[in-house]
Amino acid sequence: MSTLKTVRAAKISYIVMSVLFCVLGVVLLVTHEMSVSVLGVLVGAMLIAFGIVKLIGYFSRDLYRLAFQFDLALGIFLVVLGAIILLNPTRAMTFLCLMLGIAIMADGLFKLQTALDARRFGLHSWGLILAFALLTGAIGGLLAARPAESVGTLTILLGLSVLFEGLMNLCVALFAVKVIRKEQPEVVETWFESKKEER
Predict the structure, then answer these.
(1) Rama region for 178: left / alpha / beta (φ>0; ψ in -120 to 50; rest)
(2) Using H for helix, E for strand and C for coil, what is the string for 40-65?
(3) Residue 94, CA atoms < 13 Å, CB-side half-sphere
(4) What span, in angstroms and rounded, lies between the C-alpha atoms of 52 and 66?
(5) 8 Å CB contact between 35 and 75
């Protein structure tokens, strides 16, 4: 697969998974009382899928080199975490919230740097990425801290976390992944690499 097709596939997959996360977040906010086993299967499967998408994105060569720059480690972590949850879908809600909260908080923190890098690149959407990164990181940390033991309350907090994770990654995919129509001269790639080295 050519570089252009790989980047396009990574961007589309990123957008699709982000939308699915948003849908799952809304479902959790509306239902409030989903079975822990069903929730575990859904979250585990989506984490594995999103982890694979992040790995594909990392190995693609998008022009900006912003959106996927931290996705190697995070992609592996999500795949492993999703597999653990799938193997134990009936485990306590607190375990699910703790691990997912840590993953979402870490992704939010990584996207903070993505937003700052986007600002250096002159992307006007960096402020929106920064806002979603701050909100997502804060909600992920709150989810990991488990301020309440009620399953209903934790489900709502989990829904908010997943929703903002989806919105943040959707924003990053739409504004920080550049898919060019034709292969560009190496000088373009060299310019972007030099911009990153100036940081």
Answers:
(1) beta
(2) HHHHHHHHHHHHHHHHHHHHCCCCCC
(3) 6
(4) 18
(5) no
Tens digit of pLDDT for each residue in 147-156? 666 777 788 8
Rounded CA separation 66/40 (Å):
31
Decide: 173 and 53 in contact? Cβ < 8 Å. Answer: no
| 183: Cβ contacts below 8 Å, ≥ 6 apart | 3, 4
d(CA 10, CA 57): 5
For the stretch 70-129, pLDDT in tens is 788 888 998 998 898 888 877 666 777 888 888 899 989 988 988 888 888 788 888 999
The letter for the amino acid at 13 is S
Report the run of H or E that residue 128 belongs to, with start and end. Answer: helix 126-145
Amino acid at the residue 175: F
**Token pair for 197:** 């080295």
Token pair listed for 149: 């033991």
State how far the Cα of 194 lies from the Cα of 199, in Å rounded to an integer: 9
Mean per-residue pLDDT for 56-82? Answer: 80
Give burial (CB, 10 Å; 0-12/13-18/19+) of 92: exposed
Tokens of 128: 């929106």
Residue identified by tokens 């002159």 is: 122
DSSP tag of 141: H
Give 42's pLDDT tier (boundaries 50, 70, 90).
confident
